[in-house]
TrEMBL record:
EC number: 3.1.1.96, 3.1.1.-
Record InterPro entries: Daa-tRNA_deacyls_DTD, DTD-like_sf
Protein function: An aminoacyl-tRNA editing enzyme that deacylates mischarged D-aminoacyl-tRNAs. Also deacylates mischarged glycyl-tRNA(Ala), protecting cells against glycine mischarging by AlaRS. Acts via tRNA-based rather than protein-based catalysis; rejects L-amino acids rather than detecting D-amino acids in the active site. By recycling D-aminoacyl-tRNA to D-amino acids and free tRNA molecules, this enzyme counteracts the toxicity associated with the formation of D-aminoacyl-tRNA entities in vivo and helps enforce protein L-homochirality.
Top-level taxon of origin: Bacteria
One GO biological process term: D-amino acid catabolic process
PANTHER family with a match to the protein in the record: D-AMINOACYL-TRNA DEACYLASE 1, D-TYROSYL-TRNA TYR DEACYLASE
Subcellular location: Cytoplasm
Quaternary data: Homodimer.
Name of the protein: D-aminoacyl-tRNA deacylase
Key words of the record: Cytoplasm, Hydrolase, RNA-binding, tRNA-binding
EC class name: hydrolase
Main location: cytoplasm
Protein's UniProt keywords contain Protease: no
Amino acid sequence: MRAVIQRVSEASCAVAGKITGAIGQGFLVLLGIEEADGIEDIQWLAQKIANLRVFGDENGLMNKSIHDVGGEVLLISQFTLFAQTKKGNRPSFIRAAKADRAVLLYEAMITVLATHLGKEVATGIFGADMKITLVNDGPVTIIMDTKDKDNH
């Protein structure tokens, strides 16, 4: 499971011109799911996102978590995070989980992350053509991969 976590002042997702999820200060999380992922990946990643200290404290240092600032999360499924570009110019997405498995894990991530945050998680619509709007804050962008836990 791979996540691109962007600290934002605001973010929203629209499908067919209708807003499906919108947040103020918090994280826009782009989530890629691969076939080998399971509940342990969800648990680990949700806990890391909920406790990630990248919001400024009174001294301007990144010492506060999303809990500390009352922030929100917009979670967007994005299979393209597992694009392989080694051969040719057209990316391969063979590592990305098939839709039937990925949607179950995406929905589980919504539930587990909401539990860690103690509040609802805003979302897009799995598999839809989504238009994401965001205002990066910083910018601060963190990439996490559950298969690379030792690096985090």
